[in-house]
Amino acid sequence: MSGEEAAAAVPQPPEEENKEEEVQQETEALEKPPEPTYKCLVLAAHGGYDKVKLQVRKGSPTPASGQLLVRVRACGLNFADLLGRQGLYDRLPPLPTTLGMECSGVVEAVGEGVTDRKVGDKVMVMNRAGLWQELVVVPANHSFVMPEGMSFEEGAAFLVNYITAYMILFDFGNLRPSQSILIHMAAGGVGTAAVQLCKTVDNVTIFGTASGSKHETLKENGVAHPIDYRTSDYVEEVLKTAPKGVDIVLDPLGGSDTLKAFNLLKPMGKVILYVWSVCNMPLATLVQDLTGVKTHSCLITSLAVGSANLLTGQKKNLIALAKTWWNQFSISALQLIHANKAVCGYHLGHLDGEWELIAGVVASLINLYKQGKIKPKIDSVWPFEQVGDAMRQMQDKKNIGKVILVPETPKQENKEEN
Ligand SMILES: NC(=O)c1ccc[n+]([C@@H]2O[C@H](COP(=O)([O-])OP(=O)(O)OC[C@H]3O[C@@H](n4cnc5c(N)ncnc54)[C@H](OP(=O)(O)O)[C@@H]3O)[C@@H](O)[C@H]2O)c1
């Protein structure tokens, strides 16, 4: 036996054996690909901007039958997300929950039975919630293939705003050539989409409200009469130019503004109320929250109130809630008949069983996009890490067009461009 062989045959002390095991484990760990992770933005509790937390989850979800796995490249921020954060959006699942009603990305896997989508397709997706996530699993019919040339940011800005604007203008509003319309929040996501869609009809006169700093953009977009609702009375301003009123008012405000909208209509005019509603909050709960006094369940009336007027700060404002509810518009069938006017209500979140209807609208919108008649206007792009700043941008009324969130930090040149 050589000297070396003799040394190998000698039993090793236990520490040496452990060391060898450790080295082997480390080598194996290095050889194994790391477990995949994905980021998501979770609403942990209702309240201010800090309630939306960035989480990193392990693994990769698998699509079941009829579903898709999508790697998300951009997400849309909607007014409903601001309301949801404050506990004022009725379609949000119980907390904690991942926020996000729309996104765009690339199909990474398809579940059994999915024949009209394939791995690699670029898609836009809409869902009740849960899309502010790097990887999402969604029913295939909640996705729409993006047209050629559309960017992921545009894809994330398309569905909620344009479907809403299209359905309220054309399905309910029946907008026709030479009519006139008042569009509130005309520089925001839905507002910009509505203005572009109005321009697809000949000779429509558009009145649009927005903060004064946005009026140049409104004019460029085709709003003939921009109105700064913060410094002037928008009803007076409309009547100065159109003494008989307008044919259509798009009303995302609710409260006392709906009565103003109704009174601004010409005979045969329509007001389309499209607030994201807050419903089933028992009045007894509101009274208790406001006064601290516990009332009995005789106050069972529920609140169903409008949205934009409710958002007055970072947290839920119960006074604004009560005021909006108190001023809520109400009309009888007889009054409607005498006035020769129509009042319509629209809530995309409550159309979530109507995917065929929605697919028809999206097909029309994609055609308009391909013809260059509509194009989402992107206000700004924010990484997931800055979701609070993105929300602040919208809530501080700074945005012109759509606010976008992305899982990856945007490249400097894109940021500067935006
Ligand atoms: N029912 C539905 O299905 C449906 C679907 C989509 C959207 N909506 C509603 O449509 C409206 C527009 O939604 P969006 O997502 O496109 O948002 P957005 O218009 O981009 O919202 C932000 C803009 O709204 C204006 N604004 C008016 N009152 C505000 C307030 N109290 N707090 C903050 N901003 C206020 C601000 O601009 P200016 O002050 O300069 O005008 C702000 O820049 C919202 O009321 C939303 O709830 C409803």
From TrEMBL:
Residues 1-35 are annotated as: Disordered. The keyword Oxidoreductase applies. One of its GO terms (biological process) is negative regulation of mitochondrial fusion. Transmembrane segments: none annotated. It comes from the Eukaryota. PROSITE patterns: QOR_ZETA_CRYSTAL (PS01162). InterPro entries: ADH-like_N (IPR013154), ER (IPR020843), GroES-like_sf (IPR011032), NAD(P)-bd_dom_sf (IPR036291), Quin_OxRdtase/zeta-crystal_CS (IPR002364), SV-ATPase_mito-regulator (IPR052100). It holds the Pfam family ADH_zinc_N_2. CDD domains: MDR3. Keywords: Oxidoreductase. GO terms for cellular component: mitochondrial outer membrane. One of its GO terms (molecular function) is oxidoreductase activity. Belongs to the zinc-containing alcohol dehydrogenase family. Quinone oxidoreductase subfamily. This is Synaptic vesicle membrane protein VAT-1 homolog isoform X1. The gene is VAT1.
